[in-house]
Amino acid sequence: MEKLKFIKEQMAAIGIPYNFGEWSSAVKYPYYVGEITEEPITTEDGLEESTFIVTGFHRGKRIDLEKDKAKIKKHFDPICGLVGETENGAIIVFYDGAFYIPSGEASLLKIQINLKIKEWKGA
Q1: CA distances (Å), 67 to each of 30, 61, 72, 82, in order?
Q2: How far is CA 99 from CA 7, 21, 112, 123, in A?
Q3: CA–CA separation, 80 and 123 (whole Å)
Q4: In terms of DSSP H, where are the helices of the chain?
Q5: How many angstroms separate the most distant Cα atoms in the chain?
Q6: Which of 19, 34, 101, 120 could pair covalently with 110 via S-S, beta carbons 3.0-4.6 A apart?
């Protein structure tokens, strides 16, 4: 839960309209929806790794999605990441690539932006 809160706060900080799971506000393009996939814990230090998928939707110019992607990439640097504290430990989030997804609708653009999350408890 802490990683979801961290992502929500960071997306708000950079002005990206975002909700987890589904868009529940009045539709104003572009907007972004997040989902998460968690990987099994394989280390003794309690490291939890996840991939956070941010899907953007837009009825407009592709450049608008590219500008938002650039803001996300800069904020969650692919090399250094964005380091933060959670109530129970530490978190670091890295930009991990993006690509466009066919929407099946001529005027609807979709982009998938992947973020890699590493989280430790008790740090």
Answers
A1: 11, 11, 9, 19
A2: 20, 19, 5, 34
A3: 18
A4: 2-13, 62-75
A5: 49
A6: 101
Question: How many Cα atoms occupy the beta-carbon half-sphere of 118 within 13 Å?
Answer: 16
Structure tokens at 87: 């109530």
Tokens of 106: 């001529």
* Residue tagged 């929500």 (tokens): 8
- Percent of the chain's residues with pLDDT above 70: 99
At residue 110, what is the residue type?
Answer: K
Per-residue model confidence as pLDDT tens digits over 16-75: 999 999 999 899 999 999 999 988 777 777 788 999 999 999 999 999 999 999 999 999
Task: List the structure tokens of 23.
Answer: 């868009």
Considering the entire predicted model, what is its pTM?
0.91
List CB contacts of 118: < 8 A, sequence separation 6 or more: 47, 48, 49, 81, 91, 92, 93, 94
